[in-house]
């Protein structure tokens, strides 16, 4: 069992601290607003008054604050970076791949073992296998830091994605890009049904296999096709898809009088590919890698 510090006890940092304490680790936390950390004491977590005191007895040190600017503000204190020398800093604050690489370059000459991590989960999922955690960086490699993965496993299902300190954010950004695109489509789906008088519970009752089977299959097949750059023999050509978008989605949205901004942006991407001569190919051609 490790002594571990969590800096930042917002909703996510608090969930991390609880899960680590629940797994038997000795957890110390510090939060800028102390009162927000205090409920964690009931879970056996030590709440420190001062940041440096929180860090002194722990390795690794996990940081999970609002954003990279807040993290940089804390790490700019040389007393903290001096204290982190020889320890592992696991940065769980969301950032871009460039943030991860810049943080690793900052940590290296200071003798701080930098690990970048991305959380693909809501706080309520932390501590269950449903929480997906991606981590990376030279200091995180299982062969050089054998204790880290078992520790992070208290938080969810963990994946080491390589020595590149930007790697975890790459995976995070790519999957979250899918999430927001899908949610934008889902909003269109709900608005279309509502505008035409179909109750949402009825739509949801009819949509189970569409989400669990059709979408899952389409995602996997498209991903495999893009990886292999194989766009021939489509089940449905780009021409057919474009016709469907125009008639069924754009046409029905206009009839229902709902916003068409998202649909129009999607339609434009399909229309550009068709205009580029790809009308007979699979939808995967839209993601043709350079
Ligand atoms: P939150 O509840 O708003 O908590 C933000 C935390 O950052 C608080 O502890 C806050 O301290 C601290 N903070 C902000 N600015 C600070 C500063 N200048 N100096 C010191 N501490 C500062 O947010 P959260 O949901 O826990 O998110 C934390 C991180 O987890 C973010 O990077 C977020 O993207 C990531 N994340 C969240 C989720 C999620 O579903 N919530 C999922 C994946 C990743 P105070 O209490 O003093 O304000």
Describe this structure in words.
The protein has 290 residues and is an alpha/beta fold. Helices cover 51% and strands 12% of the residues. Strands 3-2-1-4-5-6-7-8 form an eight-stranded mixed sheet, sandwiched between helices. Helix 1 (11-22) links the parallel strand 1 (3-7) and strand 2 (26-30). The radius of gyration is 23 Å and the shape is elongated. The chain starts with a strand and ends in a 12-residue tail after the last helix. The model has no long low-confidence stretch (mean pLDDT 97). The chain binds NADP nicotinamide-adenine-dinucleotide phosphate. Residues 8-13, 31-33, 36, 64-67, 70, 73-74, 93-94, 119, 122-123 line the site of NADP nicotinamide-adenine-dinucleotide phosphate (NAP).
Which key phrases capture this entry?
290 residues, binds NADP nicotinamide-adenine-dinucleotide phosphate, alpha/beta, elongated, single chain
How is the secondary structure organized here?
Blueprint lengths: L2 E5 L3 H12 L3 E5 L3 H4 L8 E2 L3 H6 L4 E3 L4 H8 L2 H7 L3 E4 L5 H11 L5 E8 L11 E5 L11 H5 L4 E4 L6 H29 L4 H29 L9 H19 L4 H18 L12
Parallel strand pairs: 1-2, 1-4, 2-3, 4-5, 5-6, 7-8
Antiparallel strand pairs: 6-7
Helix pairs in contact: 10-11
Bound molecules: NADP nicotinamide-adenine-dinucleotide phosphate.
Q: What is the structural class?
A: alpha/beta
Number of helix segments? 11
Estimate percent helicity: 40-55%
The number of E-state strands comes to 8
Largest sheet: 8 strands, mixed
Q: What is the string of helix and strand elements?
A: EHEHEHEHHEHEEHEHHHH
Q: Which hetero ligands occur in this complex?
A: NADP nicotinamide-adenine-dinucleotide phosphate
**What proportion strand?**
5-15%
Ends apart, CA distance between termini: 47 Å
| Rg | 23 Å
Low-confidence stretches: none
Shape: elongated
Mean pLDDT across all amino acids: 97
Strand order of the largest sheet: 3-2-1-4-5-6-7-8
């Amino acid at each position: 069992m490790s002594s571990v510090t969590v800096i930042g006890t917002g909703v996510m940092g608090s969930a991390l601290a609880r899960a680590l304490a629940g797994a038997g680790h000795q957890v110390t936390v510090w939060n800028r607003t102390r009162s927000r950390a205090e409920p964690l004491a009931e879970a056996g977590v030590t709440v420190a008054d001062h940041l440096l005191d929180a860090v002194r007895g722990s390795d690794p040190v996990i940081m999970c604050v609002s954003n990279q600017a807040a993290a940089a503000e804390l790490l700019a204190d040389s007393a903290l970076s001096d204290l982190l020398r020889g320890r592992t800093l696991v940065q769980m604050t969301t950032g871009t791949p460039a943030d991860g690489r810049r943080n690793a370059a900052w940590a290296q000459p200071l003798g701080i073992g930098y690990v970048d991590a991305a959380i693909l989960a809501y706080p309520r999922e932390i501590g269950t296998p449903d929480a997906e955690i991606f981590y990376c960086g030279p200091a995180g490699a299982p062969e050089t830091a054998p204790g880290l993965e078992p520790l992070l496993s208290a938080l969810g299902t963990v994946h080491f994605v390589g020595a590149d300190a930007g790697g975890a954010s790459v995976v995070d950004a790519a999957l979250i890009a899918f999430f927001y695109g899908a949610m934008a489509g889902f909003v269109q789906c709900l608005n279309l049904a509502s505008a035409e008088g179909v109750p949402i519970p009825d739509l949801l009752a009819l949509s189970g296999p569409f989400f669990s089977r059709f979408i899952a299959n389409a995602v996997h097949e498209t991903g495999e096709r893009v990886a292999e750059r194989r766009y021939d023999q489509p089940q449905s050509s780009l021409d057919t898809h474009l016709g469907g978008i125009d008639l069924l989605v754009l046409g029905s949205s206009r009839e229902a009088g709902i916003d068409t901004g998202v649909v129009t942006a999607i339609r434009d991407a399909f229309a550009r590919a068709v205009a580029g001569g790809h009308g007979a190919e699979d939808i995967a051609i839209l993601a043709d890698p350079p």
